[in-house]
């Protein structure tokens, strides 16, 4: 079948390979407040015409686009940028067009360069272009154009063609251009969060082990001094009595067992109530206010599940899935069984009511000062629900942050990030070898890859995850993992007990803690031996901008147990080397490339110990003994 001739003249300018885009623009890329949003695109046109381009930008809440010029990086690739000065969704469009005067000037320059002198026809074209633009010029630009036009119209001596190449004239003509052949790209969206969505140190604690919400409030000043940014609380709601778990996940509880905080709901209320043993709503509101005074965020757990005693089971039985025999199915993740928890049914005929109720839970706590939510198992709920909820909440409260606790397949984790989650738990806890760490961080940090939308949070441990590396490695393993988490990822987290070197599993081969805090109350205080190192690393993170970004470059060490990397360039660079073997000292050569902006020889100060070493481009001898300290965190100094 013969092709149909187009009804309209097809555009001759192609705008291609626009960045940043996620899945061809289906989802927003992510940036933080204050970042430069850098947009690049390939601009292609047949022939030799010269192009111009602008970046059109519409900030959240604005009705119109504003323009900023784009400049060529090379003949095809163009770049423009705007500051991410407002929270929310920013819209960006690349517009390109032919610049007739610049195209004419380029033609004259090429012909002069080729030795051609008879350019009367070309000069006549230039005269017409300048004359057509003259009515739109003002001030010095007008005066300059009039002088050049007078020279071109001089009927006496032959005109020197070089008069057309005056750079000031090109600038004057470009100031008020027409836009022939103008084309625009599709809209690119960029979601701008506050900085804490991309950078922060988290500390997880169970309020019941710290004297309730009031007890947590009394520790906020010390937590802030240690450099933490987010204090994350597991569910603070009433806990069900039916099928309550006992210590160490025993299926039957003793009378004084408090139960798991994730078995949400009881006679006192559900997801919008505070457990009476922890305090009151007023205590929670005071906690968030005091935290803000210390520069801290309080993060609440958002777990979409109910104990058998949750009010929703009687108020909305249609929200729960029942077997054919009428019984409710409790939650399971074999071999784990959660007899004290029922999942909600997102296939309920009243799914709209369920969605609205869950969004109501989030906004309830937002209105009481909570701006960060750690979401439990989001990968077991519909992606469409998260996209709807997160965008809806952030349209009214753009400073709200959502952390996805989704230890699942990579595609599902990335899909949640695209749906709107600000950051995510990762596989870091299970990446303990040099090869695994290098491969995983290369994936997370690759330019133009998942880093455009996926922000990792490297928790060193959780109430569910006590890795074998920590169980067997003693203090050096804790120091190594802490250093890696704090310097590899802009966001990282610590679950209380880590600073005390807690590492006893419920049994060999298990990642569950013996006497897990999930099922019993402990007496906690901030006095662990690792707190000085935690505080120092948090201070280093705040002082050095290179550690606020995910990008890094791995360095050769000539040893499988020594991992080294550099973040930043030149005097802003931070070099890290860690001994991954918690039992044995190892030595190697850390190769510093010549293209990272460091001088041939430089002083390298260890920011942990204060020791100064002489380093240089090429190989640098390193010996790290875990019995002393298993790492260097170095900064180049004059």
Write the layout of secondary structure elements.
Layout: E1 13-19, E2 29-32, E3 36-45, E4 51-58, E5 66-69, E6 71-72, E7 77-83, E8 88-98, H1 100-113, H2 120-133, H3 139-153, H4 167-174, E9 183-184, E10 188-193, E11 200-204, H5 212-225, E12 230-233, H6 281-293, E13 297-302, E14 305-306, H7 312-315, E15 330-333, E16 336-343, H8 351-366, E17 372-376, H9 383-396, E18 401-405, H10 410-419, E19 423-425, H11 434-445, E20 456-459, H12 468-488, E21 491-495, H13 531-543, E22 553-555, E23 562-567, E24 574-579, E25 586-592, E26 601-606, E27 612-616, E28 618-624, E29 631-637
Parallel strand pairs: 2-10, 11-12, 11-21, 12-13, 13-17, 17-18, 18-19, 19-20, 20-21
Antiparallel strand pairs: 1-3, 3-7, 4-5, 4-8, 6-7, 8-9, 8-10, 14-16, 15-16, 22-23, 23-24, 24-29, 25-28, 26-27, 26-29
Helix pairs in contact: 1-2, 2-3, 3-4, 5-6, 8-9, 9-10, 12-13
Question: Could you walk me through the main structural features you see in this protein, from its secondary elements to its overall organization?
Answer:
The model has no long low-confidence stretch (mean pLDDT 94). The chain has four domains: 13-99 and 187-192, Sandwich (Immunoglobulin-like), CATH 2.60.40.10; 101-174, Methane Monooxygenase Hydroxylase, Chain G, domain 1 (Up-down Bundle), CATH 1.20.58; 200-302 and 351-548, TIM Barrel, CATH 3.20.20.80; 553-637, Immunoglobulin-like, CATH 2.60.40. The termini are far apart. The strands form six sheets. Strands 11-12-13-17-18-19-20-21 form an eight-stranded parallel barrel. Strands 2, 4, 5, 8, 9 and 10 form a six-stranded mixed β-sheet that branches. By secondary structure, the protein is of the alpha/beta class. 40% of the residues are buried. It has 13 helices and 29 strands.
